[in-house]
Amino acid sequence: MQERQADQNKNHVLVLNHRHSLQLTGVVDVLSFDSAEIVLETTEGMLMIKGSDLHMSHLAIDAGEVHVDGMMDSLTYSESHKMSKQAGKILGRLFK
Q: What is the mean pLDDT of residues 80-84?
């Protein structure tokens, strides 16, 4: 539990260099990966990276760092877990 809270306090920084090199910090977990798509949980929400010939050249989850090489076509964020938990609490209060 304390590890999750420590991860959430890390800054999330994304540096994309010429669509071929991506450096990330604030990564909490790697949910899935293959050569066409990588899905990460970050402190700012879920991040889906789509492209071709993708591979993680550096992975240090304990430090929250990931480096991805390959051709990046899209980077898409989805709602943060924080937001979905808050929405669930609000809905729970409405339907009591």
A: 52
Q: Among 9-18, 23-32, 34-43, 60-69, which is the least confidently predicted range?
A: 9-18
State the Cα angle at 22 between 57 and 73, rounded to 5°. 110
The tokens for 90 are: 């609000």
**Virtual torsion, Cα 37, 2, 84, 46, nearest 10 deg:** -10
Among 24, 47, 22, 29, CA closest to 37: 47
Residue 79 is predicted with a pLDDT of: 77
Among 44, 51, 48, 49, smallest CA distance to 28 is for: 44
